[in-house]
Amino acid sequence: MLSYRHSFHAGNHADVVKHIVEMLIIENLTQKEKGFYYLDTHSGVGRYRLFSQESEKTAEFEEGIARLWQRDDLPEEVQRYVDLIKKLNYGGKELRYYAGSPLIAAQMLRPQDRGLLVELHPTDFPLLRNNFKEFKNIIVKRDDGFQQVKATLPPKERRGLVLMDPPYEMKEDYDLVVNAIVEGYKRFATGIYAVWYPVVLRQQSKRIVKGLEASGIRKILQIELAVRPDSDQRGMTASGMIVINPPWQLEAQMKKILPYLTNVLVPEGTGSWSVNWIVPE
Ligand code: SAM
């Protein structure tokens, strides 16, 4: 089943948190001269037109990136993220385009770094390939992203980030991410793994937490922003990132940024945030 299209959701509050975490991890990786490997297991198309039929239909970006666009009081880390998006918008007066996770990474990769972008969807894959044909150190592949974790780790660089962002339209994805991390970790225990998850029903996202707790893997940080309290009604109330082997600054950076993001992205006052160790060092 491949009905999920990220263009309906691009730039929403979940993307904002996901892409800030991604950017902060990559900033940390680029502090060392030695190259690193970036694997995006579920890439989407990489670049989104916010005034397309899909985006306009849901207008989710209006409650995400659009709320940060004109502000002059952004924390420095959030400013750097907005600047990355501004680059795609020819300097930034008008918000027309949004970067997917592959384009956040591609803008930050240096010549010594290497990226693999994986996407399975028959329509999205050619769009992804087209969007990245100019990037010399990026390969685009049509495959199951979880398979590529097994197939390409450990990377020759012995440093890297694996970003896993499945659609969770199939409930198995909650277990498949845990399996993929366990397989990846066996091959590459020093790698950084970042998994995005939605909170639709809390029991489902807890499967990931429980699976990882049971795996024996240590150093697992959970970062979450909720726009509403948990509920058994339809719809996503929160989303987050689970990061294995996070850079040491990430916890403090997110504890500083999330109160700001919660206020600005959820002006209704129903929001909350958390940063917790699922398993400490
Ligand atoms: N990571 C992207 C971003 O932040 O811009 C968004 C990815 S979107 C949430 C999930 C994507 O995974 C969709 O484009 C979908 O077609 C793709 N997909 C679904 N199952 C997949 C699989 N097994 N392997 C690779 N891609 C898959």
UniProtKB/TrEMBL annotation:
Entry keyword S-adenosyl-L-methionine: yes
Sequence intervals crossing the membrane: none
Cited Gene3D superfamilies: Vaccinia Virus protein VP39 (3.40.50.150)
Pfam family, one: RsmJ
Entry keyword set: Methyltransferase, RNA-binding, rRNA processing, S-adenosyl-L-methionine, Transferase
SUPFAM superfamilies: S-adenosyl-L-methionine-dependent methyltransferases (SSF53335)
EC number in record: 2.1.1.266
Binding residues for S-adenosyl-L-methionine: H19, H42, S101, E119, D144, G145, D165
Catalytic activity line of the entry: adenosine(2030) in 23S rRNA + S-adenosyl-L-methionine = N(6)-methyladenosine(2030) in 23S rRNA + S-adenosyl-L-homocysteine + H(+)
Enzyme class, spelled out: transferase
List of catalytic residues: D165
Superkingdom of this protein's organism: Bacteria
Site feature Interaction with substrate rRNA, where: Y4
InterPro entries noted in UniProt: RlmJ (IPR007473), SAM-dependent_MTases_sf (IPR029063)
Record text on subunit structure and interactions: Monomer.
Family: Belongs to the RlmJ family.
Stated role: Specifically methylates the adenine in position 2030 of 23S rRNA.
The protein's name: Ribosomal RNA large subunit methyltransferase J
Name of the coding gene: rlmJ
